[in-house]
Structures are given as C-alpha cells and as structure tokens.
Amino acid sequence: MQQPLMYSFVEKKQLNEMMVTFQECLDLPIQVIDDQGLILQSCGKLNFFCSKFQHYLPMDDTCEKLHINASKKAINLGETYIFSCHANLNHIVFPLLNNKVFLGSILVGPFLMDYPDSILFQDIAKRYQIPTSNLLDLYDEARNIKILTPKLVTQVSKLLYYLFSNLITESKQQLIMNKGKLYQQAKINESIQMYKFNKTESDTLYPYEKEKELLTKVRTGNIQDAKGVLNDLLGYVFFSAGSSLDIIKSRAVELCSLLSRAAIEGGSPSDTILKINNNFIKTLQQITSFDNLCFKLQEIVEAFMESMFISVPTKQNEITKKAINFIAKNFADDITLENVAEHVHLNPSYFSTIFKQYTGSSFKEYLNMVRIEESKRLLANTDYSIIDIAVATGFDNQSYFSKVFKKYTGLSPRQYR
C-alpha cells in the first residue's frame, strides 16, 4: 500500500510523539487527517458520541468534508481555526503544507465550551431528524465530552500552532504569508471604504501627500508606518482603478521607482536597488491577483529598507548621504563629480572612492540611475515628449538618453511608455 503523502515530509514517529505529549498534557483527542479528511493517526479516547451521530449525516455532507473545508479556511487565515461541527461540538484544526500543496491537518476535538443542554439537542434533532430515544443516548455520551472555557480554547489553539508549525518549514512560511496578506487586504479595504465615504472632487485626485509621506518613512527606516501608508495608497489605487489589474500594475511600477530613489537617498547601494527594482518588474508580469501584487509591494518596501543598513564608517556614511541628497536635488542640472566633491568638501578622487564603496556604483552610474528613475515616472505620468523628458532629467540629447535608458531597463523610452 502506498504511503500517505504526509509521511514523505513528516516523520511518522516524531508526529506521534508530539501528539502523545499534547494529548497527555491536555486530555483532548487529537488526530492527523490526510488531504481527503481520512484519519492517519489518532491519540486519546474518541467519544462514542461522534460514531453514533455520524449515522444521521447526509451522504454528501460528511465529517471528512467538513474537516477539509475547515482546513482550507485555516490556510486562508494563516493560522489555526476553531470551528463547530454538524453536532455543534468544537474542534481546532491546523493545516500542513509543503510548497503550497495541502498534505493534511492536525485536528483537535471534539470539546464543548459549555455544558450540553436541551437547546443543543433540540437543534441537532430538528436538523437531522433524530428519534427521541436515540437523542437521549447522544445526550448521555455528550456528558463525557471535555468542557473548556473560551479563554482556554484560545490558549490551546495557540499551543497547537506553536507545537506543530515547525514540522514543515514551508508550511509555517506559507501560513505566515497568508496571514500577512489577509491583514493587508483588511487595511486596504478600510482605506477603500474611507475614500468611498468621503468622496469629493478633491478625494478623486491622486494623494501625492501620502506618496511623500511614504517616501519619508522609507528614508527614515520606519518600516511599520511605511507599510501603513503604502496600504492607504493602495486603497486609493483600487478605489480609482476599480478592477483593472493593468492600471494597478502601472501604479505599482511608479511606486517602485519612487521607493528605490528614496532607499538610495537613505543610504542603499544603487546596484542593489537596481537589482531589486528590475526583479520586481519581471515578477510583476507573472502576478495575476490583487492580493499577491499588494503583498509583493510590501516585500519591496522591506527589501529597500533592509538594504539601507549597510556597514560603513559613520563619517563616510554622513558624507555620502549629504552627496546623495545634493544629487537628488540637482540631478536635472549639469552636475559633475567635482561639483559634488566640492559640496561635501572632499578631494574628487577620494570622494569617488568612498562614494562607490557606499553606493556600489560609480558617481556617473549613480547619477544616470537617478535620472532614469525620474524619467520612468515622467514617461508613465505625463504626455511630455521623449526629448523634453530627456532634458528635464539632465541628459544632453535624446539619443544618449535612449541609450542609457535601455541599458538600465532593457527597453527604449517609447517601449516603456
């Protein structure tokens, strides 16, 4: 007989030892079910209530089907899931995944959160047409089901997660990601509702102040606040773009360009930021859902901000940041290495050395990158001609601008637009 897929990723003996520990400490039944809801392992005395009650369930609405549906709910939530079964008995389920493949679940229960009363049995008798004599038998069995307070149920749920989440590393990571997506979508929905509720002519305009606030949070390394402002911005984008994923992707590329500049101004090596930016644009083509796109943007914000914490001497750090700020304000002008070196009061040769050490790019490469990032924003948001954008971002002529633009993006300015 073929081994269940679960045991290809989890050692059966280890899993059993964990279940025994859990059951001995809490005196609660615990089972391992496969991806079809069938029991693979069981620990603890199972109450006869369940075996007697199952006879009254419809053929198309089995306990196995309910347990799998609860497992899928837990996957979406990114954590354990507490639910009531057909007979109003309580259970907790924790799903196990490997590379997004559902292997099965750890199932705890049944248990009650209050003493069984007539209301509970009247309800199940009405729904499943259980004869009175059989209902009395179920009532007798129900008195043997363990009762937990709601507070204790919450703690048991947490313990189940802490104990079994490290069985499969990918499982834990996927659940954490799903939980993060769910939380982010809730915050974005709050923002959408705010824009709908306060809909005025001014509210329909793009919130550039929010955008500036986001860039400030990134520059200063405030990651939690940056995520909050990002979700507000995404709420506006969804509010204004509706269900157009293409429009939202376009906005995402613009945001990424702005964030990359903010990260560089905050101290990130420019070559690192370029790689992150280019990888994001490539990944964007494969994204087909709004929540994945939003979560990817959150990852980009984190990646940019993490890259700002590089190890360089403090004095050089401050000097280079001063130079970066000068470039950010003057990149559209005809500035040179000597101009910037003079601004930070250093010899040009020495300045060139520490600048490359800090940013990972030569002065010319860095300046071109800043100019290209600004040109990408103008191409996406304005109707300016390509020659006008070239001049506005500090390039002498359209031919050289197009050459540099293709070097950094792989596209011509016209293709990018």
TrEMBL record:
Q: Among its keywords, does the record have Transcription?
A: yes
Which InterPro entries does UniProt cross-reference here? Answer: Homeodomain-like_sf, HTH_AraC, HTH_AraC-typ_CS, PocR_dom, Tscrpt_reg_AraC-type_HTH
- Entry-linked Gene3D superfamilies: Homeodomain-like
The alphabetized UniProt keywords are: DNA-binding, Transcription, Transcription regulation
Residues annotated as domain HTH araC/xylS-type: 321-417
Q: Does the keyword Cytoplasm apply?
A: no
Q: Which GO terms describe its molecular function?
A: DNA-binding transcription factor activity; sequence-specific DNA binding
This chain belongs to the protein called: AraC family transcriptional regulator
Q: Which organism is it from?
A: Anaerocolumna sedimenticola
Its taxonomic path starts at:
Bacteria, Bacillati, Bacillota, Clostridia, Lachnospirales
